[in-house]
Amino acid sequence: MPLKADQIPSPPRENEPLQAATESAQTLALMAQRRSTKIAHFVEPGPAGEDLDALLTLAARVPDHGKLGPWRFVVIEGDARARAGIAIARAIENDDGVTDELLHSARSLFLRAPLCVMVVSSAAPHPKIPEWEQTLSSGAACFALLMAANAMGYAGAWITEWPTYDARARKALGLADHERIAGFIYIGSAREPLTERVRPDAKTRISRF
Ligand SMILES: Cc1cc2nc3c(=O)[nH]c(=O)nc-3n(C[C@H](O)[C@H](O)[C@H](O)COP(=O)(O)O)c2cc1C
Description:
Layout: H1 25-33, E1 42-43, H2 49-59, E2 71-77, H3 80-92, H4 100-108, E3 115-121, H5 131-152, E4 155-159, H6 167-172, E5 180-190
Antiparallel strand pairs: 1-5, 2-3, 3-5, 4-5
This protein binds flavin mononucleotide.
């Protein structure tokens, strides 16, 4: 059974004392075994209401140089999933060579899971904080959301796909010109269990200076 919002500790108040480290074997086990769900395997239920708000509050708790909060979350759930699909299909419907199949898949894109959170990077030039660091913070928000969803008992997947790289689709989804999509985080339950995938050998990525 997925956990509920009231099982997550409330966010601390500003200047409240906090631990620098908290031992958590369960967190380590989750990190050791986490796995994204295939997009074709999502089924109901997904989180909603205050449970989803609690998840997004956790995802917003990421390192962020300059306290800019250079990201925002757009929840695409319920009927909005079809509306968002129609919007991105309209953005490409007059393209040369567009097929009915392509338009159908655009319209159905967000219907593949109970909900999708579009994580938008609003990184922009700043006198002190490099844009690169703002962008990295939005990637951290994507991963935090994925991990928090798993820890709450939901399946998740971080996907980008073509709308991320199509300026017309981004506009149709409500992004400003300077904003980018860091990820579509699909969240729900998994129709079937997962198997492990090939992974980079961490040892080959580690060196000591
Ligand atoms: C920024 C980003 C974008 C991704 N976009 C896609 C995508 O469009 N389609 C896809 O199949 N997987 C995509 N992936 C990969 C999946 O999210 C996932 O990580 C992978 O398929 C399974 O690995 P995991 O179980 O370790 O998460 C993307 C990953 C990242 C970090």
